[in-house]
Design goal:
Layout lengths: L1 H25 L10 H28 L3 H12 L10 H16 L4 H69 L3 H30 L1 H38 L4 E3 L11 E3 L19 H8 L3 E6 L18 E5 L8 E6 L2 E6 L3 E3 L2
Antiparallel strand pairs: 1-2, 3-4, 3-7, 4-5, 5-6
Helix pairs in contact: 1-5, 2-5, 2-6, 4-5, 5-6, 5-7
Length: 360
């Protein structure tokens, strides 16, 4: 009990001494020991690392989950150490809606079948999004958060200790200056040497921790690479899903029977957009209405044509195109008026007229 009282009294005395020293420094009434330039530079870099790590984390969370209410809910579950409930994301909800409506209209109809196919693709996009978010949270956000809540907290603790040791050192220097009698000077000198030793030791500990920020940057660089790889894989996967969906929709005939009738019904047919169909093609350039096109159709000759837009073939009978390339085109008797036969080297296939500009 007596030991605890003495310890509390000593701690109170130390706290008071530091408070007095800090106050006098603030008002310019006491000298302050400055940290060496290298240590100051390390401290500035550590603070900058903390600041930008927090900002990158926050903005990444916004990208992964734009809904602030959902982010808050996930944060509360994390703090309560509870599992976040599984919920469908927007793509999955849209997919379910499309599939249900497709079944309602009838999967044997053109529109119903297209809705089901689109819905299945939307659900695939939703699953890919969930996998991307999960991967990014583990490989990117978690290491950043571990730095803020772990390494930087340790740095802050040791930095605070360094500040206290610096105050103790300067307070000891002031007492040394004020000491008049020999005994007081001897005691003050001993106290000063101890304070200097403890300050130097704490400065070294803090310096070693701060120099570890370089390793932190290297680790965060690896995490950044993982994040970029995850993004690239996610967007490539989504692109492939959509290309496959375009091909599936493009395999439909250009006309379908009324959605209330099976596709093979003899009822009056209506035009439906496919990928690509004549209705979805860009507007033809003015040059396509020139006599050159009529001349090409009336003869069996060939012409050079410049490609205006990229085009992905929807079937093996078509030819994929790249914008600005020049190909050879010709008209084939009986072919749909919206198409020409294109040739690039040994490759041949139908090409849409509205993607071309005939050259003189």
């Amino acid at each position: 009990m007596e030991f605890n009282v003495r310890r509390l009294a000593a701690d109170a005395g130390t706290f008071l001494s530091r408070a007095v020293q800090f106050t006098e420094e603030t008002f310019g009434q006491a000298e302050k020991t400055e940290l060496d330039a290298h240590l100051e530079t390390l401290l500035i870099r550590a603070e900058s690392t903390k600041h930008w790590t927090e900002k990158i984390m926050k903005q990444t969370e916004v990208v992964l989950q734009p809904n602030p209410n959902v982010r808050m809910e996930e944060f509360l579950y994390e703090k309560l150490d509870k599992k976040v409930p599984t919920r469908a994301n927007n793509h999955e909800l849209l997919g379910e809606c499309m599939i249900d409506s497709g079944h309602e209209f009838g999967p044997g109809t053109a529109y119903g079948s297209a809705l089901v196919k689109c819905g299945e693709t939307e659900k695939l996009l939703g699953s890919a999004e969930k996998e991307f978010i999960h991967s990014s949270a583990i490989n990117f956000l978690t290491p950043f958060r571990n730095f803020i809540e772990g390494d930087f907290k340790t740095i802050s603790k040791e930095r605070k200790l360094l500040q206290n040791k610096r105050l103790d050192l300067d307070a000891a220097k002031n007492r040394m200056k004020k000491a008049r009698v020999a005994d007081a000077r001897s005691a003050a000198d001993t106290e000063l040497r101890i304070a200097q030793s403890e300050f130097d030791r704490q400065a070294e500990i803090t310096r070693l921790l701060l120099e570890g920020i370089g390793s932190t940057h290297a680790h965060h660089l690896r995490c950044l690479n993982d994040f970029v790889d995850a993004q690239a894989a996610y967007y490539a996967q989504c692109y492939q899903y959509m290309v496959n969906l375009q091909k599936q929709l493009g395999s439909f005939p250009s006309t379908f029977s009324n959605n209330n009738q099976p596709a093979g019904s003899s009822s009056a047919s209506v035009s439906v957009l496919s990928a690509p169909s004549a209705a979805s093609l860009p507007a033809p350039p003015p040059s396509q209405t020139s006599p050159a096109l009529n001349e090409l159709r009336s003869t069996s000759g060939t012409r050079k044509a410049r490609v205006l837009y990229d085009y992905d073939a929807a079937s093996s009978s078509e030819l994929s195109l790249l914008a600005d390339e020049v190909i050879t085109v010709s008209s084939v008797p009986g072919m749909d008026s919206d198409w020409l036969m294109g040739q690039r080297g040994n490759q041949k296939g139908k090409v849409p007229i509205t993607y071309l500009e005939l050259l003189n």
